[in-house]
Amino acid sequence: MLDVLIVFSHPDGEKSINALILQNFLCGLKQNKSSYTVLDLYADNFNPTFSYNELRNGALSAEIRKYHKIILNHKKMVFIYPAWNYGMPAMLKGWIDRVLVIPGFSFQEDAKHRYLGGLLTHEKVLLFQTFGGDFDGEKRKQLNHYFDPICAVLNYCGLTDITLKSFFGLYNISSQPKHKIIKKIQDDCCNFGATF
After folding, report:
1. Is 88 helix (H, G, I), strand (E, B) or coil?
2. What's the sign of the alpha-carbon dihedral 58, 62, 68, 72?
3. Cα distance between residue 163 and residue 68, in whole Å
4. Considering only CA atoms, which of 111, 157, 31, 12 is closest in space to residue 20?
């Protein structure tokens, strides 16, 4: 079993702030000698939409079964994504809906489709999210409530030890503050990786 599964969801996997987060988190994991797998949903050309067959018949494609094996082969999970329009990217939402939240895989239900409990037993989950705008402390707390749905879904699947790390003010910043913000992101993410 491997240590950490990282689900990365950003179309620019090389130059975005989210890519910087990933690179520095991996640096920390390597320092800690942790084993990991990165699922880059855009690089994988993941299709976030349900097919009729999946939705109507609950048929799982080979792709979905492959992702299930990967998920079950890790002790911890990390999600790295930008906040777009107060939510996660459609790519990540589709992955959660099509892959993660599947009866019999991540939660159990009875014959009448009543929820019986989550099935995933990962030790920890870490969510890295980025915001373009900057907000004062109280507004930041309010914005984090927009991400309660992802925490609720993860809880539904049995995952309860969830940490949220948000980065704000990443658009329209001058070069000097930008350097400080980048340095903070690098340090924070490397430290998270080294201790996760």
Report:
1. coil
2. positive
3. 22
4. 12
**180 to each of 106, 129, 172, how far by Cα in Å?**
40, 18, 14
CB 185 within 8 A of CB 144: no
87 CB-contact burial (10 Å; exposed 0-12 / middle 13-18 / buried 19+):
middle
pLDDT of 177 reads: 64
Q: Which of 171, 173, 168, 174 is nearest to 188 (CA)?
A: 168
Cβ neighbors of 174 (< 8 A, separation 6 or more) are none
Task: Please tell me the distance from the alpha carbon of residue 89 to that of residue 93, in angstroms, as a whole number.
Answer: 6
Residue 166 has pLDDT above 70, yes or no: yes
Give the containing element (helix H, strand E) for 75.
strand 74-82
- Say if CB 190 and CB 28 are below 8 A apart: yes
Q: Which two tokens stand for residue 5?
A: 């599964």
Q: Across the chain, what does the average pLDDT equal?
A: 89
Could you report the per-residue pLDDT of 117-152, keeping only the tens digit for each?
Answer: 999 999 999 999 988 766 666 666 666 666 678 899
Residue with more model confidence, 87 or 46: 46
Does the domain at 2-195 match CATH 3.40.30.10? Answer given as no
